Amino acid sequence: MAPPPLHLFSPSPRPPSATPPPWLHGPHVPSTSVSPPDPATEAPPAPKQHRGPRPAPRNPGSAKPLTAGVPGGRTRRAVLGIIRKVRSLELSDPRTPSPNGGGGSSSSSTATARVPFHLPIHPPPPEREEEEEKKGIRRAVPWAAARDEETKVVLRREKKTRVPTRAETELEAGELERLRRAARGKERWARAKKAGITDEVVEEVRGQWAKGQELAGVRIVEPLRRCMDRAREILEIKTGGLVVWTRGDIHFVYRGSSYLENAKRHRDFVNYNEELSPVTSNNPTSQGKYWSKDETLTNDNDEADDKDDKPIKGTLYEREVNRLLDSLGPRFIDWWWNTPLPVDADLLPEVVPDFKTPFRQCPPGVRPTLADEELTYLRKLARPLPTHFVLGRNTKLQGLAAAILKLWEKSLIAKVAVKVGIQNTNHEQMARNLKRLTRGTVILRNKDYIIIYRGKDFLPGGVAESVIERESQVHDQQAKEEEARLKMADSLQMIVGLSSERSYVGTFREYQDFHDSHARRTTENNFRIQLEAKKHRLEKELKDQEWRLSMLTKKIERSNQVLAKLHSSWSPSKKDGDRELLTEEERRIFRKIGLKMDEHVLLGRRGVFEGVIEEIHQHWKHKEVVKVITKQNQASQITYTSMMLEVETGGTLIAIERFTTSHAIILYRGKNYRRPTKSAPSNLLTKREALQRSIEVQRRGSMKYFARERKKSIDELKRELRNVTWEIRKLNHDTEQSWTA
């Protein structure tokens, strides 16, 4: 009788010790007690197939650690190897022994059933964990999900709640579906401008409605295409229709059942307290909603009652931002991003009467300039802020400057966007004019935004007036004290008979004189320091330019040596005095033949070398005339090339013709032409040497050009250095004269 099946693990009455996780060490397989085999049932030994040393037997219960290498890299074989390793961990996972502990019990009693591992979305309650511990239920290891193919963990992303549009709330489902089916068949639509939904686009939409069409399509372009919900809202406000369907970047607008062709519709700004088509902002710091206003004409009293009945919408921050922007100026309806809508700077006054740049005074001990860390912090701070203004003109920005100064009383940063689609806009000129009017610090400027920081020395309007008033009071008081002192000194001189010499020690006049002289000397010293710094910079730059010129000169000399070496291996042929004479008629005929020829020899950057002469002789093997095309532009180069071809080939030059982008050299082989025994002459350069010569000539020409430019810059630097030296000498001479005086 066969012995009972062996247990996978040796049963033990004591509880199993805690084993380390398999991903830290290799799989641990406990030793099993195996009884000696029965000789009667023992199978006969298998015949030997290998004479060499037999490999070590592989234990099916063992498994390699997860960190071991897998052959195959990232291929399918490697992935299958990883799966096999994960599944083999099941054998290395010890089972919980049965409470009975009997060795002859069935295999089902030796281990409990495994519970498949699931990744919980929420942690299990503590009561459930206590119950599982009492019942002895053991959770499967995390990698058990890999061996259980039926177990799958899917984490779905939570969808955002979709806000219904005006068309979905006002139209019936059947009517809306009919309009959408009709919109799918439309193939023509209007195209919006970069400036947004302009009056031309609105008139084109109403023109389609006037022709009897219920729907009109509008294709939205950048930048309004970035927020299609905002584009839908603007389109409904300006046209008075309903957007029933959107296909990509095209909105289809329904005119409505009660559409009047000649009805004049008004254009209002947005009301923030009426909710019809909310557009939630994606900005985390400006999570306001912008509510479009229904354009149907209603009674004013009814509207006032409705406003009183409806609750206030939006958070306190949203209401404060809208209230602040409303106080700065009219809003820009065609804004292509989410709410809040910025102020339209083009509608602000161009000139503000009695406008002055603000008074600034930095607190004591504070530097007015910004450090790199402060600049980085301000840029990060300005990123999530809503846009305050939208600008489309370069000059006449006093109204915008006054609004920015008002904004700076509650905000550190003013964010100005540049309008898209407006011609002749220059963001550099805009930033320069705004900085001149406000005296702020431009921390960011590009083609889309201009961000201006108010500065550390900014004072609000009321504080600045108080400081100016206090300084004027102190100055007036000091002037009165000085006047009283002078009167008292005159009275004492008349009574006591003191000397007429007046002492200004400790007086306000002494302070004024000291302040004036110190300011003058400070200005002179600053000017002298600037001149010395400029002189030092010019001397350093002059030395650098001279060194670079010397390096260019050495390179040019080296290039001349290389060209001389190449020219030494080239010995051009001499012109033969015995040439064939051709009549004018023959030349005219050969010229026509050459111009009509499609085959030609192309002369490249290598110029004339032995390969060109060989190819010309190959053409003359079948035809009497050959046409050579060259890309050279200078007349001297073309003439030299044609004469060289005539001498080296032994032919006759017929003509040089000018084409649109090239020139043609026509050569006649002659009546007594005989093909040379060696078609490639040995006195010319080879193909490789010709290329090297061409590169070296081009390199030398570019270096000569830069050498001339260096010489010009050196002359200019020397002239500036002489002027600065003369100004320093003059300033020192004036200072010496003032001291001697």
In the CATH scheme, the class of the domain at 316-459 would be: Alpha Beta
**Structural category:** alpha/beta
Shape field: extended
Count the helices. How many? 19
Mean pLDDT comes to 75
Q: Report the strand count.
A: 13
In CATH, the architecture of the domain at 316-459 is 2-Layer Sandwich
Largest beta-sheet details = 5 strands, mixed
Query: What is the first-to-last residue Cα distance?
Result: 134 Å
> In which order are the strands of the major sheet placed?
5-6-7-9-8
User: Which range best describes the helical content: under 10%, 10-25%, 25-40%, 40-55%, 55-70% or over 70%?
Assistant: 40-55%
Q: Which fold name fills CATH's third level, the topology of the domain at 316-459?
A: Translation Initiation Factor IF3
Main location: plastid
Region (Disordered): 1-137, 275-311
GO biological process, one term: mRNA processing
Subcellular location: Plastid, Chloroplast
How would you explain this protein's 3D organization?
The protein is α/β, with parallel strands linked by helices. Among the domains are: 166-263, YhbY-like (Translation Initiation Factor IF3, 2-Layer Sandwich); 316-459, YhbY-like (Translation Initiation Factor IF3); 546-567 and 698-739; 576-684, YhbY-like (Translation Initiation Factor IF3). The protein has 19 helices and 13 strands. It has helices at residues 76-92, 107-110, 126-135, 144-147, 166-170, 173-184, 199-210, 228-239, 300-309, 316-328, 372-382, 398-407, 427-438, 461-496, 508-568, 584-596, 610-620, 635-649, 687-740, and strands at 190-191, 215-219, 242-247, 250-254, 343-344, 389-391, 413-418, 441-445, 449-453, 601-603, 625-630, 652-658, 663-668. It has a 5-stranded mixed sheet, sandwiched between helices. Helix 12 links the parallel strand 6 (389-391) and strand 7 (413-418). The chain starts with 75 loop residues before the first helix and ends with a helix.
